[in-house]
Specification:
The chain has 482 residues and is α/β, with parallel strands linked by helices. It has helices at residues 39-56, 61-77, 79-90, 94-115, 153-164, 178-190, 205-214, 227-237, 262-274, 294-306, 326-341, 377-380, 396-404, 419-428, 466-469, and strands at residues 2-3, 6-8, 11-13, 18-23, 26-35, 120-123, 130-138, 141-145, 168-172, 198-200, 218-224, 243-247, 252-256, 284-290, 345-348, 367-370, 387-393, 408-409, 411-415, 433-436, 452-453, 471-479.
């Protein structure tokens, strides 16, 4: 079992207690242990962040860029080791984990370039001999709470813009998958990030959530995870002058019209619905197919699923890996069982595989459900697993109405050869991310990212839009006529 230390005040430290990390393909023995910090050690993280912020906010943007370029280089040099950690603690395939490392490096290269830019504007002033401008400055100490489904990528997505703009960050990775975040912290530390600018608080949420959130030095909280936790965080911060960014749930839909390239639509749906075992916030979970091609599309989809091998992420032959934990597996199976009781039909999958090779893992077979109605929970609530539900529709108007009939508004996709239908869908789909003839997943580091309604807060992640959350605006006037 591998032992990992965590980063506090520029030092790698242990603790009196340990948090054990398990491989979801075989949960019998832990693969690693990380420190389970206490409330007192959380206070130390903020003490160190306060000192680190005082240094980092005054650090040259060119030096910040140098650290970021070094971080990206180290991530790429250590890609095999880091990807193996992602596979071991999350269950992703090697290809998925390697892609996560590469895109995490991309985040730091992208924001290294933005760190060199000044963010502000010169303004005219009606007062004589006066020049006025505004510029962006860091907000202070940011608490970043990240999930288990992208254990390296989501911390990178948050840390890169937060640090590029001069903030200090206290990072709380998911307790199921802390190893990846510690690899990222190691790369930043080795690239020259000053002490205290980043602290990583590993441990059990029941013990450290309150001291993490209640510290008066927190200026902003960025969170990716479930709606229930996100709404709780929002309420807990409502009476404090703390800004909140939430990237929450989704119930993403893909629409396939009769004129679409059905093969291309199936290929995209396989990636969006079953990649990462469906554990993506942008995963397609609802599919609306025009009635005249519904049977043909369904047959193509089921054939594609039959050709995919379920197995451990470390095997090169695996197409779909396990879910992250036994708890997540059981939650997905309960959602399927409820759907069947409500009248849905299992077209494929629907169970945990019974073969001996899967006995100690967190597996759910890729599942497609038919005979689903809009009233069913599986149509309206996020499952977060390898489960796709199908319905037929009569044309674009009905499809758009069904896409928008949701509490969520993260991502939607349309497959068609009709340019007019494509533009209508882009205009009318009430989602933050809209794709045409490509998957609901796969947004790049420079693409603003985030959803509408219950899918998140008003602050976008990624791209230049992310800088808005991590900065405040100061307006300055100079009179030079005296």
């Amino acid at each position: 079992m591998h032992t990992m230390e965590t980063l506090l005040g520029g030092q790698w430290v242990t603790a009196a207690e340990w948090l054990h990390v398990h491989d979801p393909s075989d949960t019998r023995s832990p693969v690693a242990r990380v420190p389970a910090l206490s409330a007192g050690e959380v206070a130390r993280a903020y003490d160190e962040a306060e000192k680190g912020f005082a240094v980092w906010r005054r650090t040259s943007p060119f030096e910040r860029a140098r650290v970021f370029h070094g971080t990206a280089r180290l991530l790429r040099e250590r890609a095999a080791t880091i990807a193996a950690a992602v596979v071991a603690e999350n269950g992703k395939t090697r290809a998925e984990a390697s892609g996560e490392v590469a895109k995490s490096a991309d985040f730091f290269e992208y924001y290294a370039g933005l760190a060199r830019d000044g963010h502000g504007t010169l303004l005219h002033d009606a007062r004589p001999d006066t020049r006025t401008s505004f510029h962006h400055e860091p907000v202070g100490i940011v608490l970043a709470i990240t999930p288990w489904n992208d254990p390296l990528l989501t911390p990178a997505r948050k840390l890169a813009p937060a640090l590029a703009t001069g903030n200090a960050v206290v990072l709380k990775p998911a307790s199921e998958t802390p190893m990846s975040a510690l690899h990222l912290a190691r790369a930043l530390h080795d690239a020259g990030l000053p002490a205290g600018v980043l602290g990583v608080v590993t441990g059990r949420g029941s013990r450290i959530s309150a001291p993490l959130l209640d510290d008066p030095r927190v200026a902003a909280v960025t969170f990716t995870g479930s709606n229930s936790v996100g709404e709780g965080l929002r309420r807990s911060l409502a009476d404090r002058n703390v800004r909140f960014q939430g990237e929450l749930g989704g119930k993403n839909a893909t629409v396939v019209l009769a004129d679409a390239d059905l093969g291309a639509a199936v290929k995209a749906l396989m990636a969006a619905g079953f990649g990462q075992a469906g554990q993506r916030c942008t995963a397609t979970s609802r599919v609306l197919v025009e009635r005249s091609v519904y049977e043909e599309f369904t047959g193509l989809l089921l054939a594609a699923i039959a050709a995919v091998r379920l197995g451990p992420g470390a095997s090169d032959s695996t197409g779909v890996g396990p879910l992250v934990s036994t708890g997540q597996r059981d939650s997905v199976l309960r959602d399927i069982e409820r759907a069947v009781k409500e009248g849905a039909t299992v077209l494929t999958g629907g169970t945990a595989p019974r073969e001996a090779e899967y006995a100690h893992g967190c597996y759910v077979s890729p599942t497609v459900l038919g005979d689903v109605t809009p009233e069913m929970a599986v149509w309206r609530e996020e499952v977060f697993g390898p489960v796709v539900v199908l319905r037929s529709v009569d044309g674009l108007d009905e499809a758009v109405a069904e896409v928008n009939d949701s509490d969520f508004g993260l991502a939607a996709a349309l497959f068609t050869r009709d340019l007019r239908a494509a533009h209508r869908f882009a205009d009318e789909a009430d989602c933050g991310q809209v794709a045409v003839n490509t998957a609901t997943t796969g947004w790049d580091v420079h693409h603003p990212f985030g959803g509408f309604r219950d899918s998140g807060s008003a602050f976008k992640e990624q791209g230049t839009e992310a800088l808005r959350f991590y900065t405040r605006v100061k307006t300055v006037a100079f009179n030079f006529g005296l």
